[in-house]
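The data are quoted verbatim here:
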Amino acid sequence: MVDRAAKTALFDQFARIGKALGNASRLELLDLLAQGERTVEELADAASLPLSTASAHLQTLKRAHLVSTRRAGTRIHYSLAGDDVALLYVGLRAVAQSHLPDTEAARRVHLGLTGAEPDAAVEEIGREELLRRLRAEQVVLLDVRPAPEYANGHIPAAVSIPVEELPDRLAELPADRTIVAYCRGRYCVFAYDAVRLLRARGYPAARLADGMLEWRLAGLPVAASAA
């Protein structure tokens, strides 16, 4: 016989996770933390949130044990509590993409895709193809995320040029090899913007079909160093 109170208590624990995820700003903070450890000040800046608001959202995520913290001097550093949290976030996105029709329209606007332009209007390549071309020295791999995210972890052999610096640093890139740009993940606009800019300036360019989040979760090698 089912103990109704005990079952409700169990489902209440599941609901704690759902409640913590039920806010767009908190999901964006998880998206940022999937790139590596950040301080509350860095997260507030990256998410365009007041510091107090970012801190409150992070406390909600911490109470649900979705993020963990460490103190270094006067600063608190946040990170995801585990890869399972990143997988949960990826799964949530996939369910929204599959079951909420408005998600696709919002995705296209966010990524700057207009009209009937497909995602692959410019070349996109998958992880296995990227690794093959890197081994053959056929491409230059470009990480267009902010420098702190690159330092936290990047694809080996990637060159760091944040997308906002790219117009002034094109001379650092060769013109005789395809440049493959990547950023945070499948829903990150930076790589799309980088490829558009590179192609407009005459560089052969493609983008990685997903990004650093998916690369990490696939268990592929990650390097960490200064940009």
